[in-house]
Each structure stands twice: as C-alpha cells, then as structure tokens.
What we know:
With 237 residues, this protein is an alpha/beta fold. 44% of the residues lie in helices and 10% in strands. A six-stranded parallel sheet has the order 3-2-1-4-5-6, with helices on both faces.
Amino acid sequence: xxxxxxxxxxxxxxxxxxxxxxxxxxxxxxxxxxxxxxxxxxxxxxxxxxxxxxxxxxxxxxxxxxxxxxxxxxxxxxxxxxxxxxxxxxxxxxxxxxxxxxxxxxxxxxxxxxxxxxxxxxxxxxxxxxxxxxxxxxxxxxxxxxxxxxxxxxxxxxxxxxxxxxxxxxxxxxxxxxxxxxxxxxxxxxxxxxxxxxxxxxxxxxxxxxxxxxxxxxxxxxxxxxxxxxxxxxxxx
Length: 237
C-alpha cells in the first residue's frame, strides 16, 4: 500500500504566518534583530534554538568568540517564541481550503501520516480541530525528535517504520527547502506546495530535481497526490 506523508505547518494548515510573527517578535525582543519573512521560511524546519543561532550567523555574529552568550540568547528566544505562538493559538489555525476533503475522502485508499517539528500539544490540537481523531495513520511531532530538526531525516524514516512500508511506497509533501533535504536524506520522493510561502521555485534549486514537482498550493498538487495513491505505475521524478 502507498502512503502520503505530510508536513503540517504551511502544508496542511495555515500556521506559518503565526509561527513567523512569533519568531520575529522573540528575535526582536531578545536579540534586537529584525527577522525578515524569507529568511524565516528558508530556515523553517530547524529546531528553534538552531534557527536562532543560524540567524545570528547570518547577521555577522562571531559564532566562536560569542558562543556562550549566543547560546543563552537562543534558549531565551525559543522560550519566548513558544509563549507568543501559544497566545496566538487562542484561535486554532485552520487548514487550507479543501484540504480536509483531500485527506479524508480523496486519499481514503492510501496510508497517511503527518510529520512535524511542532510540539505534541500543537499537533494534536491543530489536527484534531481540522481533521478529527484518526484521520492519519501515523503522527510524529517535534517532541519525539528534539534536536533533530530538518534536514535530519530521522522523523521521516520513523514514519516509514511505523507505516511499515518501504521508502519507494511513500510520497512526502513539503513546503520548505530543509524539508525537501530531509526527504532526500531519507530516500523518499518529495513534492513541494508553496501555499502562503514567500519562497519561489528558485529557492528549491539543487534540492528538488524537477520544477514540475513544485506547486503553487496544495490543491494544485491534489491530482498528483491522488494519482500517486491510486496508480501502481505512477512515479514522481
């Protein structure tokens, strides 16, 4: 049986604007740095501390001489980012248009998984609200693989093991370059949906082989995803 493995944030659910605003606020308050949207989306998938350290590096900080201070700031940014995001979660983010129908109806003959760097609490709240319990055969959250953010393939490899399928039977749906790298490192086919992302096809050069596998949004990719599930001979390059 085939399977589709979805990233959650920015793929199934429109959470990325909230994640960006939370990280932007935390970085500004703790480090007095203005975080632009494109940088955040390019780094999406990293654990928050690693992302903060990468932002410091991009801003020209000396990662050797300042390491202790920067590590402390990164820890504080991680805490503050979660605080701001959960304040925003008073209104649970909604799935993208028609994604619920795609998951629950169009892919009913296919195994389905969610692999996200978000916390267990975030995942359960968002998925249950938007899709209901039991919509996915496997769900993997960031708490299970703390410190192993993308492009580390470990969470995707774990999804294969829990689905009990080989890598050739899975298709990953991602929205960020680091996520595609994680899929590549796991040896799993991958397509990209941009949805509300500020990234473009050019930002995926070198990580995805065929531009035809980059879609404007998840509904534009829905035929490809459904064909993957239903056709024994269908492949994604």
